[in-house]
Every structure is written in structure tokens, then in C-alpha cells.
Amino acid sequence: FHTLIMAILIMSAAVPCIGEFIAMRSPNERCIKLPDFSRYENLESLQVNHFDLSENETVRLPKGLKYLAFYDCSFGSGKNMDLSRFENLSVLRVKGCDLQGVERFAFPSGLEAFAIGGALFARGAVLDLSGCHQMKIFDVDASFENKEIALSRITFPEEIEEIKLCGLKFSEIESFDLRAYPNLRCADVERSAFPKLRKLLLPAGCELKKDNWEIPAETEVVRGEGAKEFPPQEVNLSEHFLRELKFKGVKIIDAGR
To answer: In this predicted model, which residue has the larger pLDDT, 144 or 57?
Structure first.
């Protein structure tokens, strides 16, 4: 989807009208204020590496953005991160980032891939991906093996076909009811730990890959149809995100606001 050229630039330089922008910090600066990216209508790919973004009151993005990545960034404290208005966004990566100040997230319906490997979430935070109807595979990215993911619940879209939660410690998940996903054919939890998991419910025909996973001895694995003992919570995102969000650290809002 790169329409023009790829550029690797230092943030202090001027940003041309390009298809891809990769921001990398210079050796002498860490804290940075990002430019107003919403002015660059042709920008489809944006990657920000190794920055403390806590001084940014607002991050403005172009509506046509398709790929957004933050690697090893800190977002400071805040309440919500709303990307639901970016209808063209198909890939989102927040690998190795500090998101402990973000309590709620909202995603566009067209999101296909979301990588969270190595990210720090607030303990007990929730990811609701149920509205991402183009997402067929969810993969946390096992390149950050043995890292802790403190999410208490992940809700997937009904269309999900494969879930990969490999090589990580999910310290707060107590139950997983995957029977709400009729197309799910594989749940891969190899080399992962679920120290609080009490019950895992799988749909009929779903393969469970579980080599070297760690769960309590009393954990129950149930297959097949039946009443949902742990149904995913429904969240009306419009109640939380249709207004401009107020952040102590960073907020991401529609470019037109």
C-alpha cells in the first residue's frame, strides 16, 4: 500500500508529503513532540520508534492512514485511545510500548492485524476487538517471549479464525470462552502461561495447540457447544469515544477535529 516512497527521517527534520514516514530518535533526544500528520493526505504508513510521547497533548493522524506502528514508545497517563474513526487503518502495532496509562481502546472495523507483543497494559485492562470484522487472525507476536500481558479479557470478532497467544504470560485472564466464535479453527497457546486461568471453553472443531503451556492444575478445558459460562462483555464504544477525548498524556483523535 505504499503509494510513493519510503523515507527514514529524524523528527527534527521537515516532513515531506510522502507515502511512508518512519520516525527514529537521534542519540541526544528522547522526549519529542510529533508534527501534525493530518496535513499529509498521502501519508499511508507511519512508524514511530523509541520515543517518550508523554509531552504530546494530541497526536493528529491523516484519515487515509493504513499502517500505524509504535515501537518501544511511552504514552504517559491518559484514559482512552480512539482509532475507530480511521476506517482505512488495517495494521496496528504497539510492540514494546508502555500503555499502562490507557484504560480503554477503540478500533476501526477494518482493522486486520493488531500486534501487542511486549506492550505494558494497565493491570486488568480490556481489549475489545469485536467490531474488527476484517480480522481473521489475532497474533500477539512471540518475538517478546516471557513478557507479561496484564489484560484481563480479550474479546474477538465473530469472524476470527485463528488466535495465537504464544510465548507470553497472561497474568490476569481467569476465563476464556471461545465458543462465541463459530469460525475459530485454531487456538495456539504454546509456551504461554495463564496462572489464574480457571476454565477454557472451545468451540467444536477448534484445534488447541498447547505444547509447554503453563496453567493451574485445576483448570478445566471444555469443548463443544453449550451455554456460555463466561460470555464476552458487550461494550457500546460510541458512549465512550464519539466525543473528543481528554488526555493527561496522549490522545489520538480524528484528523478533522
So the answer is: 57
CA distances from 49 to 1, 10, 73, 111, 136 (A): 21, 11, 7, 21, 27
Q: What percent of the chain has pLDDT over 70?
A: 71
Averaged pLDDT score across all residues of the chain: 77
Question: How remote is the C-alpha of 4 from its chain's centroid?
Answer: 27
Residue 64 burial (CB count, 10 A): 17
pLDDT of residue 11 exceeding 60: no
pTM: 0.74
Which H/E stretch holds residue 23? strand 20-24
What is the C-alpha separation between 175 and 187, in angstroms, rounded? 14
pLDDT at 225 over 90: no
**Residue that has been written with the C-alpha cell 459460562 in this structure:** 229
- Which residues are CB-neighbours of 217 under 8 A, at least 6 positions away? none
User: Measured in whole angstroms, how far is the alpha carbon of residue 246 from the centre of its chain?
Assistant: 20
| Residue spans of alpha helices (H) in the chain | 237-241
Q: 3-state DSSP call for residue 10?
A: strand
CA distance 159 to 135: 7
